[in-house]
Specification:
The complex is a heterotrimer of chains A (310), B (432) and C (281). By secondary structure, chain A is an all-alpha fold. Chain A has 15 helices and 2 strands. The radius of gyration of chain A is 26 Å and the shape is flat. In chain B, helix 9 packs across helix 10. Chain B is globular and about 65 Å long. The chains are: A mainly alpha (310), B alpha/beta (432), C mainly alpha (281).
Chain lengths: 310, 432, 281
C-alpha cells in the first residue's frame, strides 16, 4: 500500500502539465466510451455481424451454396410442426435442468466435505479439477468405452449380482442414454462447481457460525440459515455459467451418441448443426439455433428471480 | 496486496509483450505461398487407410508438380466434418479448388460445381465405361457434377467359426434365413450387432437395403410423392423388430459407426454390416479374428437384393481461380497409371466405378472383398428410386428412416412408427 | 481429538466424502491411463477384468509422439489459448472498468448487451464467421481462432472482472485523482495492479475454455500443422470408423497435463478472484 501512495504525487504533477484536451478525455463519459470503443467494435464485428446475418438466414429458405428466398417466419412455423424439434426442446431442458441440479447439490456437498481440515488439501483440490481441464471430446471418448456393457465396471458388478447378461445398455436405452450424458456432464462440471463454492465457504466469517452455535443451531440449521444465504450470490454465478454451457452443449453429444438413440439425446446445438450442415438447410438450422435464445433467456431470468427470492 | 504495484505492472507488461509477439508470430506464418507458382488444393476426408492419403502427398502430388510445375495441396478433414468443411468453402467461395464428395454433397453443392460431363465421358470411354451406380451418384438433371471415384461399399461381415458352430458354412441368402441363424447364435452368446443409432453410415448401410428388399421406399421415382406408408414397409419393419429382438444386443440402438468395429474386435458379435474396415483392421491387428472374418452380399428379401451406394467423387468448385488447371489435374489423376496406383494402395476399400477395373489385380489381393464389386450392380442412393435431392439430404440428416426402424425395435407399434415417418417425410417433401 | 474415537470420526466425516468425490472425479482418468498402456489385444478383450493391465506397453505413447503431430498441436493449443486469453482480458478490462467505475449514459444498455452476448449460440455464428475469417485472408492460420475465441471469452471476462472490480475500494483511485492523475493513469497504475486475483480467475477460465474449444477449430483449422489438440486428435486418431483408442487416451492424458500444471499453480488465486467478485458483488 505504501508504495502505491508514494508514487501518487509524481503522477499528479505529470498530469497537471497536460493540455486541456486531456480534460475532455478525462470526462467520465468520454473516457468510458473511448475505453469501450475497441472491445465494442470487436464484438460488433465478430458477434454482432454474424448474429444479424444468422437472424437474416433464419428468415430465408436457404439451402447451402444456393441463394436464399425470404420466407418470413416459415422456418419457425416448420419447427413448431416438427416433432423432433419438440423432442429436442424437451431434451435440452431436462438435460440442463437435471445436470445443473446435480452439479449444484453435489458441488455443495463437495464444498462442505472439502471445507474441513485435512492433509494434502491442495493436492486433492487440484486433482478434483482434472475433469474440468481435460478436453471434452477426449474424455467423452473414454466414457464411450466405459459405457459399453461388456466393459462397463457397473455392468460387471450388476451381472455378478445376478442381473441378466450383459446388463443395462447405457447408450441403447433412450432413458439411460439421457442419464449417461447427464452423468458425464455432471462429472465434468461438478468439481468446478464444488471448488468455486468451497472458495465461497471460506469467505464466511467463523464468528457467524460461533454465534449460531451459541444460539443453539444444529449443523443443518447452520447450513440452512447461515451458509446458504451467504453463498447465494456465488451459487447464482456458477449456476448461470453452468446453465449457459450445458444448454448449448455440443461436443459431448456429438461424440457420444450423435443424438441417438431415436433422438433421445439430441440437443438444440446438435440438431441445429445436423440440419444446417448435414441437411444443408442453413435457414432452418439458423432458426433452430435461434430458438435457443428465448429459451435460454427465459431460463436465466427465471433462475435469477428465483435465486434472488430464496 | 503487499506486493509492490510496480513489479506487478512490469511483469504484466512483459506478459503482454510476449503475448503480442506470439500473436505476430502466428499472423506472420506464411500462408498461402503466394508466389508465381500455381496451387491446386484438394479437400479430402481422412481415409481409413493411411497409405491412401500418403499416396497423394508422397507420390501423386510430387509427380504432378514435377510434370507441370503446379503444386498440389492435399488437405485432410476428419470423418463426419466433410459436409461442414465443404459448406464453409462453398459459402465463402474459397478454401479449396477440388472437393471430395461423400453420400449427398453433390446435390447440396451442385450449383457451385463445374459440369465435368466431357471429362467424365472421356474417362469412361477410355476405361471400360461407368457403372450405372457411378452415374446415379454424381449426375444432377443429366449434368455430371463430379467425376466418380469409387464406392465404399457396405457388406455383411460374419464370423465363419461361430456360424459353423450352428452348422452354417455359407452365408444365408435371405433375411429370413439369416434371422434363423441369428436366433441360434444369440442363444450361444454370439449375438448379431447391426447399428440402429445415429452414426453416419452403418445404420443406413443396411436399413435402406432392407426396406428396398421388402419392396418399400421412402419416396416415389418422381421425388415428390412420399410412399413410405405401405404394406411392404410394414413387413420390413416387422422383420427388423424380430431381427433385433431375437438376434442382437440391446446396445445397438445407441451405436454409432465406431461401435460395431469395436464390438467385432472384442468378439462380442458374430455378424454386422460394415465397410471393409473391420476385415482390414482385424487382419493387421487381430490376425486370429481376421482369419475367421468373412464378407458377403446383403441377404435378399421378397423383392430382391440391394446395397447402399456410398460413393465418393471429386468436384471442381466453379469459383476456383484455377478451375481450368484443376480440370487438367483431374484428367491426369483419372488416368490408369495414377488412378490404378491410388486404388491399389488401399486394397479394395475403394471400389472403382469404372468397368475397366473389374478384373484389376487389386481384386486378387483379398478375394473376400470381391462381393464389393458384385454389390455395385444393385447399389443405390438412400432415396432410390427417386434421384438424390435436398429433401433426401434432410430426411437423412433427421434419421427419419433409421429412427422409424429403431423405434419399432425399441417397442413402438409398426403402425405408429410408419405413421410418424410418413408425417415427417411429407413435411420434408412438401417443398419438392 | 487425538483419541481413537476422534480419529474414526475424522475419517468418516472428512475422508469418506472426500474419497468419494476423488474416486468419482478420477476414475475416468484411471481408465484413460490404463487404456493408454494396454496393448490392443488386451484392450479389446472383454473376458479379462478391464481395470487391470497385464502386459503394459508404451507403444501408444510412442506412436502418438512420433507418428502424429501431437507436440505441434499441443504447442498450437497453448499459443492460441494464451494469446486469446490475453486479448480477452485486455478487452474485458476495457469494458469492465468503465462499467464498474464510471457513470455515463448508456452504461445499463452496454452491460445488458454484453450479458446478452453469452446467450448467442455458437452454431448460429460459425458460417458468417467463416466468411469474415475468409475475407481477412486468415483461413488455416492460428490467428483465425485467436480472433474468434475472444468472441465467447470477452463477455465472460468482462462479467467476472466487473464483479471483482466492484469490490475494490475506491479510496486509492480517488486519492490519485485528487493528486491530478488522469483517469487512464489512475486505472493503469493504481487500480489494475490491485486486481491480479481477478485477472487470474478470469484468465484461467478463459484459458480452459480456449483449449477445450472444438467447433471453430474444426472449421477454421484443417491443416495438420495448425490444428489444436482436440481437433488434431479427433481428426487423425479416428480414421473412418476405427478409433485408435490407446493413442486417443494417451492424447487425452498428455493434453491435460499443461493445463493441470497451470491450475495447480494458480488455483488459490483463481478461487480467490472468483469469489471476491461474486460474494460481495
Amino acid at each position: 500500500m505504501t508504495v502505491v501512495s508514494e508514487r501518487l504525487p509524481a503522477l499528479g504533477q505529470a498530469a497537471r502539465r497536460r493540455a486541456p484536451l486531456s480534460l475532455v478525455l478525462d470526462r467520465e463519459s468520454v473516457f468510458s466510451w473511448l475505453m469501450m470503443a475497441l472491445p465494442l467494435l470487436f464484438l460488433a464485428a465478430l458477434v454482432g455481424y454474424p448474429f444479424f446475418y444468422g437472424i437474416l438466414l433464419s428468415l430465408q429458405y436457404r439451402p447451402v451454396a444456393h441463394t436464399g428466398t425470404f420466407i418470413g417466419l416459415k422456418n419457425f412455423i416448420t419447427n413448431l410442426h416438427d416433432p423432433i424439434f419438440w423432442q429436442v426442446t424437451a431434451n435440452t431442458f431436462i438435460y440442463t435442468g437435471v445436470a445443473t441440479f446435480l452439479k449444484m447439490v453435489g458441488g455443495l456437498c463437495l464444498a462442505l466435505a472439502m471445507n474441513q481440515h485435512f492433509r494434502m488439501k491442495n493436492l486433492v483440490r487440484a486433482l478434483l479439477l482434472l475433469p474440468f481441464i481435460v478436453p471434452t471430446v477426449l474424455s467423452t471418448v473414454a466414457w464411450l468405452w466405459m459405457l459399453d456393457p461388456a466393459f462397463s465396471v457397473v455392468n460387471r458388478l450388476l451381472v455378478a449380482l445376478g442381473w441378466p447378461k450383459p446388463g443395462p445398455s447405457w447408450l441403447g436405452n433412450p432413458t439411460l442414454a439421457m442419464v449417461s450424458i447427464i452423468i458425464i456432464n455432471t462429472w465434468r462440471g461438478l468439481p468446478f462447481y464444488g471448488i468455486t463454492l468451497l472458495a465461497g465457504l471460506q469467505t464466511v466469517p467463523p464468528e457467524l457460525y460461533e454465534a449460531a452455535t451459541i444460539d443453539g443451531a444444529s449443523g443443518l440449521q447452520r447450513l440452512r440459515f447461515v451458509t446458504l444465504p451467504l453463498l447465494r450470490p456465488i451459487i447464482l454465478i456458477v449456476t448461470l455459467f453452468s446453465v449457459i454451457f450445458t444448454f448449448a452443449d455440443f461436443q459431448l453429444v456429438y461424440v457420444l451418441t450423435h443424438g441417438g438413440p431415436q433422438n433421445a439425446t439430441n440437443l438444440f446445438a446438435t440438431y441445429a448443426f445436423d440440419i444446417a450442415m448435414g441437411a444443408g438447410q442453413l435457414g432452418l438450422g439458423a432458426s433452430i439455433a435461434l430458438a435457443m435464445l428465448p429459451a435460454l433467456a427465459l431460463l436465466i431470468v427465471a433462475l435469477t428471480i428465483y435465486m434472488r427470492r430464496v | 496486496m503487499a506486493k509492490p504495484a510496480s513489479s506487478t505492472a512490469t511483469s504484466r507488461r512483459k506478459f503482454l509483450k510476449y503475448a503480442a509477439a506470439g500473436a505476430t508470430a502466428a499472423i506472420s506464418r506464411p500462408w498461402p505461398a503466394r508466389a508465381d507458382q500455381k496451387t491446386i488444393t484438394i479437400l479430402h476426408e481422412s481415409s481409413f487407410i493411411k497409405p491412401f492419403d500418403e499416396y497423394v502427398t508422397n507420390t501423386l502430388a510430387p509427380a504432378y508438380e514435377k510434370e507441370t510445375g503446379i503444386k498440389v495441396v492435399y488437405e485432410v478433414t476428419s470423418v463426419g466434418s466433410l459436409p461442414t468443411r465443404i459448406s464453409t468453402i462453398a459459402e465463402t467461395g474459397s478454401g479449396a479448388d477440388i472437393a471430395m464428395n461423400a453420400l449427398l454433397q453433390i446435390i447440396q453443392f451442385g450449383e457451385k460445381y463445374l459440369d465435368v460431363g466431357d471429362l467424365a465421358e472421356e474417362i469412361g470411354k477410355a476405361q471400360g465405361g461407368w457403372y450405372d451406380a457411378g452415374r446415379e451418384a454424381v449426375q444432377v438433371n443429366g449434368q455430371w457434377k463430379a467425376i466418380p471415384f469409387s464406392n465404399i461399399g457396405q457388406l455383411m461381415n460374419w464370423r465363419t467359426d461361430w456360424f459353423a458352430e450352428v452348422g452354417v458354412k455359407k452365408f444365408p441368402d435371405t433375411w429370413e434365413e439369416l434371422y434363423e441363424v441369428g436366433k441360434k447364435l444369440k442363444a450361444k452368446d454370439h449375438p448379431f450387432g447391426f447399428e440402429l443409432g445415429h452414426g453416419f453410415g452403418d445404420n443406413h448401410g443396411w436399413l435402406y437395403p432392407l426396406l428396398w428388399s421388402y419392396g418399400g421406399a421412402e419416396v416415389a421415382a418422381d421425388g415428390k410423392t412420399v410412399v413410405i406408408d405401405s404394406d411392404e414397409t410394414a413387413r420390413a419393419v416387422d422383420f427388423c423388430r424380430k431381427f433385433f429382438k431375437d438376434t442382437m444386443l440391446d446396445d445397438v440402438l445407441g451405436w454409432t459407426d465406431v461401435s460395431n468395429n469395436k464390438a467385432w474386435m472384442a468378439e462380442q458379435i458374430s455378424c454386422t454390416n460394415n465397410a471393409e474396415s473391420i476385415l482390414w483392421f482385424a487382419k493387421r491387428e487381430f490376425p486370429e479374428i481376421g482369419k475367421v472374418t468373412d464378407q458377403a452380399m446383403n441377404p435378399a428379401g421378397p423383392k430382391g437384393r440391394f446395397h447402399l451406394l456410398n460413393s465418393i467423387s471429386h468436384s471442381i468448385f466453379s469459383f476456383s481461380p484455377v478451375r481450368e488447371e484443376a480440370r487438367t489435374f483431374m484428367h491426369w489423376l483419372m488416368q490408369p497409371k495414377q488412378l490404378g496406383g491410388w486404388y491399389a494402395v488401399a486394397d479394395s476399400y475403394y471400389q472403382p466405378l469404372l468397368h475397366g477395373y473389374d478384373n484389376a489385380p487389386m481384386w486378387n489381393v483379398e478375394p473376400r472383398n470381391i462381393p464389393y464389386r458384385d454389390a455395385l450392380a444393385n447399389a443405390h442412393l438412400p432415396g432410390w428410386p427417386a434421384p438424390a435431392s435436398r429433401q433426401l439430404a434432410e430426411s437423412v440428416a433427421k434419421y427419419i428412416v433409421v429412427d422409424m426402424f429403431a423405434k419399432a425395435c425399441a417397442g413402438a407399434s409398426t403402425k405408429d412408427v410408419i405413421r410418424n415417418a410418413d408425417a415427417q417425410l411429407k413435411e420434408i417433401y412438401r417443398s419438392a | 481429538m487425538v483419541t481413537g474415537h476422534g480419529r474414526i470420526e475424522h475419517i468418516v466425516r472428512v475422508w469418506l466424502p472426500v474419497a468419494f468425490f476423488l474416486v468419482l472425479a478420477l476414475f475416468p482418468f484411471y481408465w484413460m491411463a490404463i487404456t493408454s498402456i494396454k496393448p490392443n489385444a488386451e484392450l479389446y478383450n472383454k473376458n479379462v477384468m478391464p481395470l487391470i493391465v497385464r502386459a503394459p506397453t508404451l507403444k501408444h505413447y510412442v506412436d502418438l509422439l512420433t507418428k502424429s503431430s501431437f507436440l505441434l498441436w499441443t504447442w498450437n493449443t497453448m499459443l492460441v489459448a494464451a494469446v486469446a486469453t490475453a486479448i480477452s482480458l485486455v478487452l474485458g478490462v476495457m469494458l469492465a472498468y468503465p462499467l464498474a467505475r464510471m457513470r455515463f449514459a448508456g452504461a445499463g444498455l452496454i452491460a445488458m448487451t454484453v450479458a446478452a452476448i453469452y446467450l448467442v449460440p455458437q452454431p448460429l455464428l460459425f458460417i458468417p464467421l467463416a466468411d469474415v475469417i475468409n475475407r481477412l485472408g486468415l483461413g488455416n492460420t492460428l490467428t483465425s481462432v485467436i480472433l474468434t475465441y475472444p468472441t465467447m471469452l470477452v463477455p465472460f471476462c468482462a462479467w467476472l472482472l466487473l464483479g471483482y472490480f466492484k469490490t475494490v475500494p475506491k479510496e486509492l483511485e480517488e486519492a490519485a485523482r485528487i493528486d491530478g492523475a488522469s483517469r487512464l493513469q489512475t486505472m493503469r497504475q493504481v487500480f489494475l495492479p490491485l486486481c491480479t486475483p481477478g485477472f487470474i480467475s478470469a484468465g484461467i477460465f478463459a484459458f480452459t475454455l480456449s483449449q477445450n474449444e472444438f467447433l471453430y477449430a474444426l472449421i477454421f483449422l484443417t491443416k495438420t500443422t495448425v490444428r489444436t489438440v482436440p481437433v488434431g486428435v479427433i481428426s487423425e486418431l479416428i480414421r473412418g470408423d476405427v478409433f485408435y483408442w490407446g493413442q486417443l487416451m494417451a492424447g487425452a492424458l498428455l493434453g491435460s497435463i499443461p493445463v493441470a500444471l497451470i491450475y495447480s499453480f494458480f488455483v488459490e488465486h483463481y478461487v480467490a478472484g472468483l469469489t471476491t467478485g461474486s460474494v460481495k458483488g
